[in-house]
């Protein structure tokens, strides 16, 4: 979702503190950071894989990411992993959770275009139950040979996410895409007897056998969405629909509130006779 162009929509929500947390794949983290280091290019879905391979270019749908982008990412992230390992060694009983690693990377990137930057700045945790499944995992794999010993504690993040759900007065979930992140978010809401609100946005159908294809009513049967809720599943292209949803909800609320505040200030300092 970050690779395909939804990055700015997600960043807007995080920048203006309109959500409590994010659950994402490793790609959502690393592509956000890599785009701060080097650009992604528009190509075509039909470009030949073998030709791109010879040219050192990786295809994500109709987007093109040169190998050099990942080289820059490696040069940037390795020294950070070195520092994190040193901090772990000098402090007893210290390990890193995926959300803490992502927060650290967000602070280090220091780029206002980044989702991770705003999440770190606003103390919004980004959970990633499959952090090693991607380029970031490759970097950790390489690092484990160069300087072994970095410990990642997934269970502590699980406790943190589930506790956030349990303690929430109300819980609303927006699932863009699916897979591991969809199940992880829904399962956290199982701990509180279900989410109060739920919106699914993807193109998956039940007959494809994927978790992404499961309809909200299936989650109701598990206690992951409350029976009293009115969940919605939108079958559609998230690259088209998510920006529209954000524009008509989060962005509209933000700008209406901003305009109201400006009006109030004007009336306070320039009272209408």
CATH topology of the largest domain: Deoxyhypusine Synthase
Mean pLDDT: 92
CATH superfamily of the largest domain: Deoxyhypusine synthase
Approximately how much helix is present in the residues?
A: 40-55%
Strand content: 5-15%
Distance separating the two termini:
51 Å
Radius of gyration: 21 Å
Low-confidence stretches: none
Q: What is the CATH architecture annotation of the largest domain?
A: 3-Layer(aba) Sandwich
Which class do the helix and strand fractions yield?
A: mainly alpha
What is the ordering of alpha helices and beta strands?
A: HEHEHEEHHHEHHEHEHEHH
Structure summary:
The protein has 273 residues and is mainly α. Helices cover 55% and strands 11% of the residues. The longest helix is centred in the first third of the chain and has 24 residues, at 67-90.
Could you describe the 3D structure shown?
InterPro entries: Deoxyhypusine_synthase, Deoxyhypusine_synthase_sf, DHS-like_NAD/FAD-binding_dom. Its EC number is 2.5.1.46. This is deoxyhypusine synthase. It is a single chain. With 273 residues, this protein is mainly alpha-helical. It has three domains: 1-167, 3-Layer(aba) Sandwich (Deoxyhypusine Synthase), CATH 3.40.910.10; 169-236; 242-273. It contains twelve helices and eight strands. It has helices at 2-15, 26-37, 49-54, 67-90, 98-109, 115-121, 135-146, 154-167, 180-190, 216-222, 238-248, 250-269; strands spanning 22-23, 41-42, 57-60, 63-66, 126-127, 172-176, 197-202, 232-235. A three-stranded antiparallel beta sheet has the order 2-4-3. Strands 6-7-8 form a three-stranded parallel beta sheet, sandwiched between helices. Helix 10 links the parallel strand 7 (197-202) and strand 8 (232-235). The longest helix is centred in the N-terminal third of the chain and has 24 residues, at 67-90. The chain is globular. The model has no long low-confidence stretch (mean pLDDT 92).
């Amino acid at each position: 979702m970050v690779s395909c162009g939804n990055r700015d929509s997600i960043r807007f929500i995080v920048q203006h503190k309109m959500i409590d947390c994010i659950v994402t794949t490793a790609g959502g983290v690393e592509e956000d950071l890599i785009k701060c280091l080097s650009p992604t290019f528009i190509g075509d879905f039909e470009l030949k894989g073998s030709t791109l391979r010879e040219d050192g270019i990786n295809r994500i749908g109709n987007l093109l990411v040169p190998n050099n982008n990942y080289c820059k990412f490696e040069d940037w992230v390795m020294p950070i992993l070195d520092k994190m390992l040193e901090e772990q060694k000098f402090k007893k009983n210290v390990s890193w959770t995926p959300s803490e690693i992502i927060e650290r990377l967000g602070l280090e990137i220091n780029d206002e275009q980044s989702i991770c930057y705003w999440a770190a700045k606003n103390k919004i945790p980004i959970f990633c139950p499959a952090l090693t499944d991607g380029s970031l995992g490759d970097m950790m794999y390489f690092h484990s040979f160069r300087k072994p010993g970095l410990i990642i504690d997934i269970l502590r993040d699980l406790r943190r996410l589930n506790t956030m759900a349990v303690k929430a007065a109300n819980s609303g979930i927006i699932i863009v895409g699916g897979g591991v992140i969809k199940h992880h978010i829904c399962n956290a809401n199982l701990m509180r007897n279900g989410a109060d609100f739920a919106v699914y946005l993807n193109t998956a159908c039940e007959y494809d056998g994927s978790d992404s294809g499961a309809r909200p009513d299936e989650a109701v049967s598990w206690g992951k969405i409350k029976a009293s809720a009115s969940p919605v599943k939108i079958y559609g292209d998230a690259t088209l629909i998510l920006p529209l949803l954000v524009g008509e909800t989060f962005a509209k609320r933000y700008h209406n509130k901003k305009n109201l505040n400006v009006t109030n200030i004007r009336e306070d300092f320039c009272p209408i006779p």
